Amino acid sequence: MEYRHLGKSGLQVSAFSLGSWVTFGDQISDEVAADLMKTAYDAGINFFDNAEAYAGGRSETVMGKILRDMGWSHETFLVSSKVFWGGEHNARPAVPNEEGLSRKHVFAACHNALRRLQVDFLDLYLCHRPDLSTPIEETTRAMSDLVTQGKVLYWGTSEWSAQEIMQAHLVAKECHLVSPTVEQPQYNLFNRYRVEKEYARLYTEYGMGTTVWSPLASGFLTGKHRKGAAEGTRATTVETLGWMKSNFEKFARTKGEQLVELEKLARETGLSLIHFSLAWCLKNPNVSTIILGASKVAQLTENLRALEVTDKLTPDILKRIDEFMPVDSWL
Question: Are 60 and 87 in contact (CB under 8 A)?
Fold first, then answer.
């Protein structure tokens, strides 16, 4: 396993990490979840990503039980949560203050995450989306206070604009607060602009790290969904993932030709499209870690092999990718 610093911080995170979105507490059994975490940990993965909204809080509960049962020292792993949509109220309409980034919800959500994950502190705590109804100063102060209290080590954002993140940094500097360390954006061959262009100043001026998600574009970059959602996959068999089926249909219409070109280039380098796509993400020095999702141990093990083939993406190959997959490409 390769380890990278989270931006300019002293925290070292594995180049690949394991996420629990749409799997833990929902799509897979608790036993499979435990096998995935053990496989990841044994392979050197030290970061496990979660959020209050995943499976209505059940994802954190499942992960917390696994962490307790495995008996791993917290010194050997990192665990995150994210706050915005709320968690356990998902079975009913939310009442005021159960969602968003107000000081009240940020604190309540952190305490709930600590309880469900069965840890004394969160290594990373992220604002899952920007909250336009709450002043950035209020959210920044709340997150900073959680760091000061020792309940959170590093805080950050997910899918915030560069302008919003810079506002948080300016507020932190002006008010002598702890500034955000990490942003969690989507990043793959079809979604490049934000990570490579919009956030460029965040790396150089503020030392931000990134924990990127969806490196395979929700599975479109596996090649299985080139004509739309493949039958028998989770997009067609899991009722709650109807949005994924719709996305694949859209991608097939708008990105099919680019997918064919990527498959040709992957074959030329002797790689599967999956390894090619993951290795491409790894080549970006501003990517601190790539969050992998998996429903089977074999799937996770196979994806981890991308670490072994990054040298096959030579400068010439990367240049050729840029020619038909420009940086402003967007799903």
Answer: yes
Give me 137's structure tokens: 């100063």
Superfamily of domain 3-222+280-309: NADP-dependent oxidoreductase domain (3.20.20.100)
Domain chopping of the chain, boundaries: 3-222+280-309
- Lookup result for tokens 């993932």: 241
Closest to 59 (Cα-Cα) out of 22, 18, 110, 25: 25
Over residues 135-183, the pLDDT tens digits come to 999 999 999 999 999 999 999 999 999 999 999 999 999 999 999 999 9
| pLDDT exceeds cutoff 90 at 237 | no
Q: Can you tell me the distance from the alpha carbon of 142 to that of 106, in angstroms, rounded to the nearest whole number?
A: 7
> pTM for the complete prediction?
0.94
d(CA 132, CA 151): 25
Identify the band that residue 326 occupies on the pLDDT scale cut at 50, 70 and 90. confident
Half-sphere exposure (Cβ direction) of 129: Cα atoms closer than 13 Å: 10
Sign, Cα dihedral of 269, 217, 290, 66: negative
Pairing of strands 182-183, 122-127: unpaired
Residue 291 to residue 79: CA distance in whole angstroms: 12
Q: Which residues on adjacent β-strands are paired with residue 49? A: 19
Give the residue carrying structure tokens 């020292």: 73
Q: Partners of 191 in the beta sheet?
A: 188
Q: Which of 207, 180, 192 is nearest to 125 (CA)?
A: 180
For the CA atoms of 145, 76, 287, 219, what is the dihedral angle to 10 degrees?
-110
Q: Which residues are catalytic?
A: 54
